[in-house]
Amino acid sequence: MLALWHNFGIMRTRTYLILWSALLVVVLVVVLAGCSSSSGEGDVDALVSTSVAGTIGTQSNSEQKSPVSDGPPQTSIYCPDCQLVEVTGVVDGDTIDTSIGRVRFFGVDTPERGEECFTEATEFTRLLVGNQVRLENGPRLEDTYGRRLAYIFDSSGNSIDVQLIAAGFAKAWTRDGQHRDTLVGLAESAKVNRAGCLWAGHSSTSSSDYDPTGPDRDCGDFATWKQANDFFIAAGGPNSDPHRLDGDQDGVPCQSLR
C-alpha cells in the first residue's frame, strides 16, 4: 500500500513538471512571435508610438484642454477638441488635402521633392494623419500661395507637427506661431540626438548648416537670429544676399528672429 502511494506521488509530481514545462514553452512562443511580428511590419508603428511618448513636455495653450488621465501618452502640444476634418490626400510631408481644401502645416518644414528625406517624411505624414485630422489656427490663416495654414493634430488630439520634428523628419518653423518655442526646442533636441533621416548624419560641430553654396534657405530654416546672421555673412552679406534673407535691405537679415 505504501509503495502504491509512493508511485502515485511520483506520477503526480511528474504531471506538474510536464504542465509547467508546457506552460513555459507557450509563453516563450508567444513572446517570440510578438517580437518577430514587431520587427518587420511594425517598425513604423513603433516609431509613431515612440514619437508620441518621447515628446511629452511643457504644456502649451492647446494642452490646457486635456484632462489628466492614465490613458495613452500625449504629445507636448495636444488639442482633442480642435476642428475635425477628413483627409483626402497627402501631398508631401507638410501639406495635405482635406475636406475643406489643401492645408499646409503651420509649425514645420519638411524636405521638398528631390531633396534627401522627402520620401521618408511624406510617408511618415501619411501614416500619422490617417483618415481624419484636427486643425488649430495660428496667427496667419494662409501662406503666400493661398493655402490654408494650421497646426495639425491626429484624430485623438496628438500633434503631428511635434511628431514629425521629434522623429527627425521636419524642421521647426521659427518665424511666428503660438507653439514656436516648443517646436524649436524639440527640433534642437532632434538635431543633437541625430534623430531620423534629417539629422542622422548631422554633427554639432559641422559647418554644413552655414554652407553658403548649399541649398537655398530662408529665415524659417534657422532656430536663432545668430544662426541666420552667420549664414548671411558667410553667403556674402550684406553686400550680397543670394538667399534673400534681408528683405528690407538694411543689412540685418531675418529680423523676425530677433
Please give a quick description of this structure.
By secondary structure, this protein is α+β, with helices and mostly antiparallel strands. The protein contains 7 helices and 7 strands, in the order H-H-E-E-E-E-H-E-E-H-E-H-H-H. The longest helix has 37 residues, at 2-38.
Characterize the structure shown.
- The protein has 258 residues and is α+β, with helices and mostly antiparallel strands.
- The chain folds into 2 domains: 53-63 and 73-199, OB fold (Dihydrolipoamide Acetyltransferase, E2P), CATH 2.40.50.90; 208-257, no CATH class.
- It has 7 helices and 7 strands, in the order ααββββαββαβααα.
- It has a 5-stranded mixed β-barrel. It has a two-stranded antiparallel sheet with strand order 4-7.
- Helix 4 (160-166) runs parallel beside helix 5 (180-192).
- It is globular, with a radius of gyration of 26 Å.
Strand tally is 7
Quaternary class: single chain
What's the rounded overall pLDDT mean?
76
List the domain count as a whole number. Answer: 2
Q: For the CA atoms, what is the radius of gyration?
A: 26 Å
CATH topology of the largest domain: OB fold (Dihydrolipoamide Acetyltransferase, E2P)
Taking the alpha carbons of the first and last residues, their distance comes to 96 Å
Largest sheet: 5 strands, mixed, barrel
Category from helices, strands and their pairing? alpha+beta
